[in-house]
Amino acid sequence: MSPDGWHTSEDLDGFLARAGDFLRSRPAPHTVPLTVTEGLRTRGAHAHGAGTPVFGWLEREGSVHGAYLRTPPHPMLLTPLAPGDADTLTAHLAGLCHALPGVTADSETAAAFADAWYRRTGAAPTLHERQRLYRLGRLTPPDPLPDGRARVADERDRELLMVWYEEFTEAVGDPAPTNPGSWADARIASGGATLWESPDGTPVSMAGLTPMVAGQIRVAPVYTPARLRGRGYAAAATAAVSRAALAAGADEVLLFTDLANPTSNALYQRIGYRPVSDFAVWHFSAT
Predict the structure, then answer these.
(1) What is the pLDDT of residue 1?
(2) Which of 27, 153, 187, 258 is deepest in the core (most CB within 10 A)?
(3) What is the pTM of this model?
(4) Are residues 10 and 52 in contact, defined by beta-carbon separation less than 8 angstroms?
(5) Which residue pairs from 175-182 have beta carbons closer than 8 angstroms and sit at least 24 positions apart in sequence?
(6) Please, are residues 119 and 112 in contact by the beta-carbon 8 Å criterion?
(7) Distance between CA atoms of 250 and 237, rounded to whole angstroms?
(8) What are the residues whose beta carbons fall under 8 Å from the beta carbon of 188, sequence distance 6 or more?
């Protein structure tokens, strides 16, 4: 045990045994750690990248007060922390000689950690993306809907899902997926990808759902090829998967948007999503 209360482990089961209840206690702000750890549990240690995942939690007097996880090459994920706890975490990680490409967390925690990491290591932080977390209120599907229909993706769509997932990650600036086939297989098996197809059966947009964990399901990813945008396909696909999440019994249906994209933020609010909190992604220079 570290004297500052931080623990680090590569054991997912041990991490969930200690910090799982803490993560489930706040499903909305912890949505990404919940779904990432579920992916690692069900699809294996390399579900989100080729590197070895690392987990950590902050424990005081027998209670967990914060957590982090890293699935290289992605930025570290942090739960909300007090500024002082973000500072002690940088000392803990620097002492372990952990190099970090960046951090993703609620805006205040991410900024506090980025500043502390810079002071500790000299790695200059750059704000990569500002995000907003939304929660579904009353679902209001687009009216009128574009021509076509929603269809849950199946085996015949595997190659298309792989291509669109790679295009999506490139468009949002995420690291290229190491195994898009595994991602597509998992979504097909769970029914977690829905296509909006035109009247002639041609897929024109995709919306996905994460597995339900702690009563929450997150809509992700939503992707329409550039040449097909502006026709209402993404809104229709998102409304379809949102309805499916409610039908599956989700207590909370969530999604993230890029705050630099006013079109998507307005779109999701029109169909019933309401702001919860803001997040940020910071990238760190190599030292």
Answers:
(1) 41
(2) 187
(3) 0.94
(4) yes
(5) 175/49, 175/73, 175/74, 178/46, 178/49, 178/50, 179/46, 182/43, 182/47
(6) no
(7) 18
(8) 153, 154, 155, 157, 158, 161
